[in-house]
Amino acid sequence: MATTETTTAATVSGGPAATVLNHTVKPYNFTFSPFLREAYQVGLPADRPICKAYQTGSCPNGTRCAERHVTDGRTPSSSSHPTGGLNSLVCKHWLRGLCKKGIPCEFLHEYNLRRMPECNFFMRNGYCSNGEECLYLHVDPLSKLPPCPHYDMGFCPLGPVCAKKHVRRRLCPLYLAGFCPEGPECRRGSHPKWSTTLERPTVKPEPKTEEELRAEMELLQQQHQAHQAQFSHDDGDRQRDKDDRFGGRHGGRGGGRGGWRGRGGGRGHFRGRGGY
What we know:
Elements: H1 2-13, H2 16-21, H3 33-40, H4 52-56, H5 92-95, H6 120-125, H7 149-153, H8 173-177, H9 210-246, E1 260-261, E2 269-270
Antiparallel strand pairs: 1-2
């Protein structure tokens, strides 16, 4: 029985799903590949770490450096992003073909669904009109909540309706007894801090119903359509003003001086450049 289960697991792990998820491109080597690799870093992994020497001002390896040379100094610590910092996300400008930085860009220039940037629409509104078809990341807003300081000290009066996150932590037994010799570097548990100047906890808002979300979606669509209609109307007014100023559809180059004169239809006559 154990042999059958092992065989089945091996078959699933090496099936079509594994071929798709663990897809690897066969490397091609040409006579000019070393030159492209040294001069333009072609063929190097896109998620390689960022060169710290280049961030300080200069890199002794120059173009032959195996690490990324980015111009932005906003490089997070390697502990939070072990794959190289900002270049662990796909460049949203590169997806639209508008990235001006090219190779020195601090973000990835490759189509990788697992490293897409966060969806701004979902981040602002809590939902996305594209739903499951959206290519950007939908991060749970609850994961961004700050920890509740009252709960960290031992008790929060609001309980599960608190607007902040309640994180359970294991207390350090030495600190709980009165003193921990390791201080902030202690790995036995957390050291809760007591404070008397904390703000009162707030109640988290109730989640919106499907009807409210649908109404907001319809309102956003109506505002978008109204904005498009107003934009097209303004374009039409500007085009008519331009035609009246320079001739155009409402008059030729020589028709500026001509016009219909006379209050009555029968008495009026057209006076052009050569008219009488």
